[in-house]
Every structure is written in structure tokens, then in C-alpha cells.
Amino acid sequence: MLFSAALPAVFLLFSALFVAANDPNDPDDDIRNFNNVRYTAALTVGEKTINVILDTGSTDLWLNPYDGVGWFEDTGVSHEIRYGEGATFINGTIGLADMSIAGHDIHHQAFINVSQIAGLDACGSGICGLVGLGFDSPTAGIEKALTDGGLDGPKIGKSVLSSIFDMNPDKGRFFALSLSRLGDAKDTAEASLSIAEYDPLYAGVQWLAKRLVYPPTAKSWRLLADGISVNGASVPWPAVSAATPAGHHVVLLDTGTTNILVPAPIRDAIFSAVPGAFLAKNSTLRNSHWSADRDVWVVPCDTPVSFSVTFGGQPYPLHPLDLTDLRTQVGPDGTTYKYCVGSITNGGTITTGGTDALYGDSFLRNVYTVFSFGDNTTATPYVQLMSQTNEWESTQDFAHVRQQQLAASPGTEIHPAELIHLFDGVEVWHDAASTTASSSSPSSTAKLAGNLADVDVAAVLGDATTPSKYVFIIIGLLAANLLIVLVLAVLGVTNLVRGRRSVGPTRVAYMPTRTKDDSLMRSSFEDRPYSDK
Ligand SMILES: *[C@@H]1O[C@H](CO)[C@@H](O)[C@H](O)[C@H]1NC(C)=O
Ligand SMILES: *[C@@H]1O[C@H](CO)[C@@H](O)[C@H](O)[C@H]1NC(C)=O
Ligand SMILES: *[C@@H]1O[C@H](CO)[C@@H](O)[C@H](O)[C@H]1NC(C)=O
Ligand SMILES: *[C@@H]1O[C@H](CO)[C@@H](O)[C@H](O)[C@H]1NC(C)=O
């Protein structure tokens, strides 16, 4: 833990170093990264320290330790919270207890003493609760439940943040987060949560643009995004809701969601623009994150996806390691295969209606984020984003790390089209026609890949009895592969040039990766999104 006594007493910065062990049961770490899937803060109640998920997508606090919270004042009011599409929920009664979190002691904080939990991380993973970092509302959550129960909801049902802000009336009503990325070249194990102060490492964030929540009356961390781009080409995002200004989409910045969730057509448009990527519909292959469907985009493991999102005209690049994940799976032939999947998945009903997308941890790792409930200059709540990812460095980093991941991973790697044929028994092709990206190079590569995949790869490679019939096709395949390599090389150079031109703060110098590879460790717990919106 990086905690300097030289900092002012009210300075509430917590950093934790998750080096080799990253032991989820070590109570001394305050902010923890569980395999890039969940981020938690240590909350102490009585003698107990509980790792609670940091969730900007909800407001209430709930606790579910194995052996109970211990003594607390029971209001007798029961309350239930449903998340995501609704099948996941917690249920229990609202209690009041003295607790401390992020260096603050809070008297009589309201929380839900969980008695029923469904579809969510049970305590077994080392995560035994959740703290909402969203907005108080008299018409929702614990506050409303208490009011409905005849108690003073606004007074005793405040969120953890409101409790802390009210205790520090001379300080700003904001918090700021930096989320670490395990498994990159820096293996950045540092994460920080600061309440009413900035992490000194990123103090410059206070001078950056204040991006107002959208709509301005929204009691949630939703922003209006301009768009997204893949390999430098913008991906059209047709307006979903008539209320959304043309050319924009509404995103919820949600630390309780592991990845990025978008409507299926947007996901398909994104990965269609990636050279050599193939879509497996309703597949037996598996996504690395929760998805509303079983469609899986298989991406060549060594292909860095250059992806950025734009807010207020400013692009924020994502680290390519946040766009694809390496998986292994035993095929129908009994052989273990390794393959890479796109990490942006289908949000289903979560991404229809008022929210077009959930930008979870795989976006938030790339920015230092200030979440302000408003101040004396800007009454509307706002967010400030400070980019933490340099395109050039992260592309270098990706090449190095992915190579190590592949070397360390068991299994055979085969062409995505061949893999999909093997697992699902269907022929797939990279549908160049549906490629919506306007840049010429990715789509021409897509056409090339399409030509390659139009050939029945499995038949070509599997049928040795009639070599003469296939020899030209095989030569064609080799030529196509060579061309893909050349095109990728050209794309690589393009990225390099763009990376050099890119603006933004200088990043920590490139350092060799340690051999330990956290990103290969798949968490045992589900990563369903936590969003009650
Ligand atoms: C939650 O608990 C309350 C009281 O214990 C009960 O009335 C309610 O039906 C429960 N909700 C669910 C979804 O089980
Ligand atoms: C809190 O929840 C635990 C676990 O469900 C239960 O055993 C305990 O009785 C509850 N405490 C109160 C005061 O309701
Ligand atoms: C997806 O595949 C499963 C079997 O693996 C099948 O039961 C289901 O109906 C399919 N869903 C769709 C939408 O095709
Ligand atoms: C706004 O609040 C800050 C402290 O939070 C204070 O320094 C500043 O003077 C205030 N500005 C106005 C215009 O009141």
C-alpha cells in the first residue's frame, strides 16, 4: 500500500501494489484488482474487513460476509436490488452500522444485510459486498425503502459517499479512480480511490474539460460520447433513442461492469473492422466476459485492435490488451486449442433504452477519472477524464505480452475460420460487405480474409487423399497468408506513425514484463455487469 504520512490528514488516497501474490484475502490492501474482472475497496465493520466491489453503476451498500456482519442496528425494513437484466439480485434487511472505508469512519451507515443472493459473486471469491458510488435518490434504493418503511430515508439512508461528503463540508463532492491493469508490460498493480481529493500523480486532471452527465438531470454517471473508431476508421453508431443527439451515444461509466457492453450490431461493426477476425454465431466457443448472446468474435491472437472512444472531440485510446482475451478450450476432437476473443460483448436489453453502452473496467483502466456531483461553478454533475494510454507504447506492450501469454499457454492455435469450423461445424467468412469502417486498409484486408475463408479450410487441410485437386488452393492460401502478414505490417507502421503524433501525457517508460502472467488466470467467479439501471 502506498500511503504517505506526509499527505494531509483528510487526503484519502489509497493505492495498493498487487505484485506477485495479489492475495485477495490480505486485508492490508485497500483497493484490489481481482484479475482485471472486479475492483474492490476494503471496508471495515466491527472487527471485520470486507472486500466490497466498487460500483459506479449503483448507489446502495450491501454486505454478505460468510459469518455475518456482526452486531448492527436492524431497521427491520427489507430491500431487494436487481442488477443487469434482472435475473441477478440480492435481498435482505437494511441495517445501520459504524464502519470505515478509504480512511473514513462513518457513523450509522445504512447497508443491506444480505440474506439472499442470486447470480452474483458469492463470498467464495473473496468479494463479499458492494459499495455503490452512484447518486442518492429519494425515489429509489435504500433511501426510498426506509422512507416507505416510515423512517427518515434522506437522513439515515444516505449512500457511503454522501455520508463522507457531509462529514467534510469544506471539501468538494467528488471522488476519483484509477484502475490498474494486471498482465501488461508494467503489470500496473497500482489502483487508487480518492474521495474529495486528487491522486497527486494525476493532479492535472482538475484542469481538464468537465464533461457533464447526460441528460443533465440524470442521476447516474452517463456521458454523451461522440463515437468510436477501430484502426483509425470511425464506426457508425446509429442513434438508438430519438432523445439522443444525432451522431452521439449515451454511455454509462460503470466500474461494476468488467468489459464494454454494446448492442450486438455495434459489436459486430467493431470486430468486422479487425483484419482476420471471424464471427462464430451462437457458438460453443466461449466469450471471455458476460454476453447477452453466445456470438463470439475470434480474433487472431497477435492482432492488436486499435480502438478509441471520443468524448467532446477528444479521442481516448484503449490498450489493445483490453480488446482481446486469450482463452483455451478442449475441442470436439479432444485437443486443447488456444484462441483469442473480442472482449466487447452484446449488452442485450441493458444497452437498449436510455443507455446505449456500458463502458466498464476495460475502458476505465485507460483513464484517470474524476466523478463530481457538481460544485460551485458547475451545478450539473460532471466527469473529467485523463487519458492514461499511449497508442504507440501500448501496441508495443501488446506485442510483447501477447507473445508471452501465447508461449505460456497450453494448446494449439489454428486459423479462426478453421477453429470455428472445428467447434461449431459451420463455415464462416469475414463478411467484408458488412464492414462499416470507412478506412480502406482494414476493409481490403477483410476482403482478403474473406477470400481466404470462402475456401473450405477444413476440407483443404483435412483431405490428404486428393492432393492434386487442392494444391493450387493451398498455394493460394499461403499467398493469402503472406498478404495478410504484409497488410498487418503496413497497419503496424501506420499505428506507429499515429502513435508518434498522438498527444497526451507521457507515460511510464516501457519495462520488460515479468514472467508471471495474471491475465491468463481466469477468475472463477462470474463477471456479470453490476448495473441496476
Ligand atoms: C426479499 O425478502 C422479502 C422479505 O424477506 C420478501 O418479501 C421478498 O419476496 C424477497 N424477494 C425475493 C426476490 O425473494
Ligand atoms: C444478517 O444476515 C445474516 C445472513 O443472512 C443473518 O444470519 C442475520 O440474522 C442477519 N441479521 C439481522 C439482524 O437480520
Ligand atoms: C444456440 O444453440 C443452442 C444449442 O447449442 C440452441 O439450443 C439454441 O436454440 C441456439 N440459439 C439460437 C438463437 O440459435
Ligand atoms: C468554490 O469552492 C471552492 C472550494 O471548494 C472555493 O475555493 C472557491 O472560492 C469557491 N468559489 C466560489 C465562486 O464560491
Descriptive account of the structure:
This protein is of the alpha+beta class. It folds into 3 domains: 31-170, Cathepsin D, subunit A, domain 1 (Beta Barrel); 192-424, Beta Barrel (Cathepsin D, subunit A, domain 1); 428-457, no CATH class. The protein is 22% helix and 28% strand. It is built from 10 helices and 27 strands. A 6-stranded antiparallel beta sheet has the order 1-11-10-26-27-12, covered by helices on one side. The longest helix is centred in the last third of the chain and has 35 residues, at 467-501. The two termini are 33 Å apart. The model is unreliable at 1-28 and 432-526 (pLDDT under 50). Residues 39-381 form the Peptidase A1 domain. Residues 1-21 form the signal peptide. It holds the Pfam family Asp. It comes from Mycena albidolilacea.
Topology overview:
Blueprint: E1 14-16, E2 31-34, E3 38-45, E4 48-55, E5 61-63, E6 73-83, E7 88-101, E8 104-118, E9 129-132, H1 141-148, H2 153-156, H3 160-167, E10 174-178, E11 191-195, E12 211-212, E13 222-225, E14 227-230, E15 233-235, E16 249-253, E17 260-262, H4 264-272, E18 278-280, E19 296-299, E20 307-311, E21 314-317, E22 324-330, E23 336-342, E24 344-346, E25 357-359, H5 361-364, E26 367-372, E27 382-387, H6 391-408, H7 416-424, H8 440-454, H9 457-462, H10 467-501
Parallel strand pairs: 4-9, 5-8, 16-25, 17-24
Antiparallel strand pairs: 1-11, 2-3, 3-4, 3-7, 5-9, 6-7, 7-8, 10-11, 10-26, 12-27, 13-16, 14-15, 14-20, 17-25, 18-19, 19-23, 20-21, 22-23, 26-27
Helix pairs in contact: 6-10, 8-10
The structure holds 2-acetamido-2-deoxy-beta-D-glucopyranose (NAG) (4 copies).
One 2-acetamido-2-deoxy-beta-D-glucopyranose is lined by residues 68, 74, 93, 113, 115.
